[in-house]
Amino acid sequence: MSKTNIGQELSSAVRPAIVMTILFAALLGIVYPLAMTGIGQALFPAQANGSLVRDAAGRVIGSTVVGQAFTSERYFQTRPSAAGEGYDGLASSGSNLGPASRVLAERVAADVAKRRSEGVRGAVPADLVTASGSGLDPDLSPEAARAQAPRVATARRLSVGQVRALIDAHVEAPLLGAPHVNVLALNRALDGLSPEVFGR
Amino acid sequence: MTIAGWALILSFVGVLLALTKPVGLWLFALYEGRRTPLHHVLGPVENGFYRLAGIDPAAQQGWRRYAVHMLLFNTALLALTYVVLRLQGVLPGNPQGLAGLSPDLAFNTAVSFTTNTNWQSYGGEGTMSNLSQMLGLTIQNFLSAATGIALAFALFRGFARREAAAVGNFWADVTRITLYLLLPLCVVLTLFYIAGGVPQTLGGVVDVTTLEGARKTILLGPVASQEAIKMLGTNGGGFFNANSAHPFENPTALTNFIQMLSIFVIGFGLTWTFGRAVGNTRQGWAILAAMVILFLAGVSVAYAQEAAGNPVLHQLGVAGGNMEGKEARFGIAASALFSVITTAASCGAVNAMHDSFTALGGMIPMLNIQLGEVVIGGVGAGIYGFLLFAILAVFVAGLMVGRTPEYVGKKIEAREVKLAVLAIAVLPLIILGFTALSSMLAPGLAGPLNKGPHGFSEILYAFSSAVGNNGSAFAGLTANTPYYNALLGIAMWLGRFFVIVPMLAIAGSLAAKKHVPESAGSFPTTGGLWVGMLIGIILILGGLTFLPSLALGPIADHLAMIRGQLF
């Protein structure tokens, strides 16, 4: 390179920098996402719009992908959530509490006590008393679901065996992740099993 | 730890090793400027861009011109994103009716995405409109990644060329990488993610009445198109606050696996491209071997710690591993693995909250960043960062045997070593300096959520992440304040360009040198001894620099945790 000064270098770069920014903005910021939206909506309309679940009347009751809070004793209850006031779709978040946090230890102790009062014996499944990363976890581990089987069975006057069988039928065991149960699917199946007890 | 967990980890590495050469070959074609099959479709776009911008793609640039054009382009992109974010309130594509960002937050975010950091001071939902996600952020995800790879190409040319004045053409490199590598792959990945359950719509919110009768809101948007480049470009900035832990960003174990592969695949390929560029692919495999050994060591520690769990919770009657901050569908192995990948690369996406990892499990992601993210590393940035360490390693080896060091056919002399030391030394200086400052000043101390040593870890992690252009966080830290937005913004800019400019100077200096044929006296840079040297240099430099601060943070935290001392 010959002895060019920095000012010349800069001025030679101004036009390409500005024009390329505009061109790439159009291609990557507008054309690409809009084209993908069009193709995605055409090929996979259900997933592209959030995998929504509707009831018989056509009302949206949730999404198969995103979790919702279940607190009733008649349902399998979801994990503690740090998203807003709990399962807030506009404020996904974990608790971000560290391992030696007093706040964490007190929260977990309270949840463990609650599970003990519902008859859970032995070691409590970890995911049942810990907050997920998103605060919108749609799943439970099979152990955390089974730990709730006696309570759900009592509340719905079903046998524990019936409830356990329902859990087993809903366990997904992906090769590349952990075995889990989708709580919304499980609870809808539960409503199918004993609608007379929990009439709407 | 389980057999299934280790099977996941080893199959992950196995798939990547199988992809290394094919991806490396494709990258080599782009490095050389050869035609690819995609030129039939996208060639007119490429040429149209050059014509409109007045660029001659064949014009070769010396390292100074290459650097100036790169810097000015990045500054223009920074300005675009800043303006889009500030004006969000009056621009279209804003179904939630969100207001424009404050100046400090817009500055921080614009720097963050331009520097490939993608630190999120904001929560994704409730801050960014759909247009901001697309026009402000997605475009940066592509171009910061393309810039990184282009810079790696420039350094490769420095090693490969003989008595040359130029290191390539910045515009040709960036355009080709974007059009023939990133964009086509992202089209495929986007469709894969949508099929797996990631939304892609211009709609906003959906009202839901839950099974228990509660009224809730589900937020949708053009998530999948952002997700694809977020991982492939090692960007890491999520559509949602919870990032890849959010079920809409990462719905299944399979999407999780593909996301993890996307983070590493270009980095793996670039090691092969480097070997090919300097005429000996074993040079590339040697670098990859050192990286993979360091990576697996990190995974082993993080996975073991997370699987062992938190003794504080065991005391309370909780079973097994540490699930705080982790998603049930991923479990412990896939979460620990993801955390090590995302910090080994400069990605910074998270599928679990690092802040809630066990003390030592969370130290591994932090240490990965502090080692300079050279274990695979960010796209482009990983390999050029690693080659700086390689220059130091041959220098140290040269001192031990008393010969002028050489690397892949080039003499490494005082100028290169000085520049490499400059690039490597600036990072810890900023990380530790800003951490110390923030541990003393009131606005800094206002940040941490956790008390005790973990609070210090949150600050240390933030500056490590910013300077390392990672973008992950111990997210308990309240960083959306003028103090942290400004300081972290500066840290990100310095961390990116204070490595790049000395690195380009090395590229220019090397390109001008004669080729030195390998002789009996050359230190071999392909065998096990060399791999050991590289690992040693990286660990000793990183270890000596950061051990004291890690002792104050995660190590103190660990000792408290095992004693059951709470803060």
From TrEMBL, chain A:
The chain crosses the membrane at residues 12-35. Its main location: membrane. One of its GO terms (molecular function) is P-type potassium transmembrane transporter activity. It is a single-pass membrane protein. The keyword Amino-acid biosynthesis does not apply. InterPro entries: KdpC (IPR003820). Keywords: ATP-binding, Cell membrane, Hydrolase, Ion transport, Membrane, Nucleotide-binding, Potassium, Potassium transport, Transmembrane, Transmembrane helix, Transport. It is found in: Cell membrane. GO terms for cellular component: plasma membrane. NCBIfam families: kdpC, PRK00315.1. The system is composed of three essential subunits: KdpA, KdpB and KdpC. Part of the high-affinity ATP-driven potassium transport (or Kdp) system, which catalyzes the hydrolysis of ATP coupled with the electrogenic transport of potassium into the cytoplasm. This subunit acts as a catalytic chaperone that increases the ATP-binding affinity of the ATP-hydrolyzing subunit KdpB by the formation of a transient KdpB/KdpC/ATP ternary complex. Belongs to the KdpC family. This is Potassium-transporting ATPase KdpC subunit. It comes from Sphingomonas dokdonensis.
From TrEMBL, chain B:
It is found in: Cell membrane. One of its GO terms (molecular function) is potassium ion binding. Its main location: membrane. Coiled coil: none annotated. InterPro entries: KdpA. It holds the Pfam family KdpA. It is a multi-pass membrane protein. The chain crosses the membrane at residues 6-31, 66-85, 134-156, 177-195, 257-278, 285-304, 374-399, 419-439, 459-479, 486-510, 530-553. Keywords: Cell membrane, Hydrolase, Ion transport, Membrane, Potassium, Potassium transport, Transmembrane, Transmembrane helix, Transport. Belongs to the KdpA family. This is Potassium-transporting ATPase potassium-binding subunit. It comes from Sphingomonas dokdonensis.
